[in-house]
Amino acid sequence: MLKKRVKGCFDIYPNAKEQWQDPKIWEFIETTLKKIVDLYGFSKVTTPVFEYTEIFTRSSGEESDIVNKEMYTFLDKKNRSLTLRPELTAPVIRAYIENGGASKPLSKLYYTGPCFRYDRPQKGRYRQFHQFGIEVIGKKDPIIDVEVISMLLHLFELLGLTKTTLLINSLGSIESRSLYTKELMKYYLEFEKKLSEDSKRRLQSNPLRILDSKDKGDIEINKNAPSIINYLDEESKEHFERVKKGLDAVGISYKIDSKLVRGLDYYNDTVFELVRADDLSAQNTLAAGGVYSGLISLLGGKDTPGIGFALGIERIIQYLLEEKISIKEKPTCTCYLIGMNKACKEKLLPVLQQLRKQEISSELFEGTSIKTGLKNASEKGAKYAIILGEEELQKGVCKIKNLEAREEKEIPLDSSAETIKELTAIPRETIC
Ligand code: ATP
Ligand code: MG
After folding, report:
1. What angle separates helix 142-159 from helix 234-249, to the nearest 10 degrees?
2. How much distance in Å is there from the Cα of 80 to the middle of ligand 1?
3. Where are the beta strands (DSSP E) in 323-406?
4. Which of 36, 69, 84, 404 would bridge 116 by S-S if both were Cys, CB 3.0 to 4.6 A apart?
5. CB-hemisphere CA count at 13 Å for 349?
6. Residue segments in the chain with a per-residue pLDDT below the cut of 50
7. Which ligand is closest to the CA of 120, given by its number?
8. What is the pLDDT of residues 206-240, one digit of tens each?
């Protein structure tokens, strides 16, 4: 059917039936995101929506849900395997390497854009969704981990979302992880028959992934699995201790979740998730991230550590709406022009042009009823209306109405744009 959009996708459209698809709320999020990246000194990276498939298979790991089940992969006309990006860390790292890597000791990058996953569509889970994220590349340091986590929590504070829980864990070094993985394998072998089909396979290829399983039976088995914290080597232990100390120092509370492994293979040491404190569903993760020391060399760059987080914008918007957080709407129009017949409207055209060139957002009413015109003007949040009827036209004047003070006066039509400019330059409360 041609009229329908693809399953699991949605439009962001003015006054959409579903409130979370309204562009106004997306704008609010975008503005807040921009505020936080500016405060923390990050630069924007934009990458193509598709990449060579290998970028994702190599970085995320063959056994991750993303690579295993969720990628939109296709062959182009020259039989090259391409994939619509399911996430943005790997593409950003690819871009970092391809653009010559770091020019300064630290590269602080952010991104925002659509991602694609063949997930089972439901609330908080779509096939095209939007992520925002940051990456700090260049150094592994607990202080950077603390800064990144603080930034995430600061962002949520700016959004007004404070009923969240920060979960943290350490995955240790590659070496300590492999020791742990062996113990994990021993543990799971006892329950092999009870594991889900996916996890049976993971048992051989990547047992760590079982900890990340969403299968109810697996979740039960995971409850008594050995804890990675007990297998950390000295360096990782110290790193983790310093992260915890740093978080304490900046007053950020956290919960240690020793089963938190994240869905992707490229993480090590600190990993974290921000979840809704009041929601225990599988869609309660608002943002997630961690340290990745091997990713850049895995993708062909110079061995450089990094850390980042990503968040799903849809889930945040839905959460904002559930929390009934009021979003200040920006007025879309400052001056509304109402002409009471065709000739009047034509006469208003140059005024409209002048106003816009003066950077005063203005619109010309498409009808001729003054009542409807004024109603529209107030719906749009306009401060002023310029009204031109036949009588005024003859006299070369127009009425200018202050819609807040409900006062009007007559002024020469030719200077009306100038008058509006002068009026809008004065702070609102001192007008009339
Ligand atoms: P989940 O466990 O919920 O499937 P994930 O581990 O697959 O999440 P990440 O790869 O860490 O998620 O992506 C970061 C964020 O992107 C998630 O916390 C979530 O907010 C969002 N996200 C992931 N998949 C989807 C999706 N299909 N639709 C909407 N948002 C998503
Ligand atoms: Mg997922």
Report:
1. 40
2. 27
3. 335-339, 362-364, 384-388, 397-402
4. 84
5. 6
6. 428-432
7. 1
8. 888 898 888 899 999 999 999 999 999 999 999 99
Nearest CA to ligand 1 atom 28: 125
Task: Look at the pTM and tell me if it is higher than 0.85.
Answer: yes
Atom index in ligand 1 nearest the CA of residue 66 equals 7
CB of 259 closer than 8 Å to CB of 222: yes
Site residues for ligand 1, CB cut-off 6 Å: 87, 117, 119, 124-126, 129, 131, 263, 283, 285-288, 310-312, 314-315
pLDDT of residue 125: 94
The atom number, within ligand 1, closest to the CA of 131 reads 16
- The residue whose CA is least distant from atom 16 of ligand 1 is 312
The structure tokens 């042009």 sit at 353
Of the chain, the percentage scoring pLDDT greater than 70 comes to 96
Return all residues near 87 (Cβ < 8 A) that are at least 6 apart.
Answer: 56, 60, 66, 115, 131, 264, 310
Write out the two tokens for 82: 């391409």
Burial of 257 (0-12, 13-18, 19+ CB in 10 A): middle
Q: Which two tokens stand for residue 60?
A: 């995320």
CA distance 292 to 138: 11
CB contact at 8 A, 70 and 85: no
Distance of alpha carbon 304 from alpha carbon 103, whole angstroms: 13
- The pLDDT tens digits of the residues spanning 320-352 come to 999 888 887 777 899 999 999 999 999 999 999
The sign of the torsion formed by the CA atoms of 31, 37, 43, 49 equals negative
How far does residue 271's CA lie from ligand 1's centre (Å)? 15
What is the overall mean pLDDT for the chain?
92
- Identify the helix (H) or strand (E) that includes residue 321: helix 313-322
Q: Are 384 and 358 in contact (CB under 8 A)?
A: no
Summarised one tens digit per residue, pLDDT across range 37-89 is 999 999 999 999 999 999 999 888 777 788 889 999 999 999 999 999 999 99
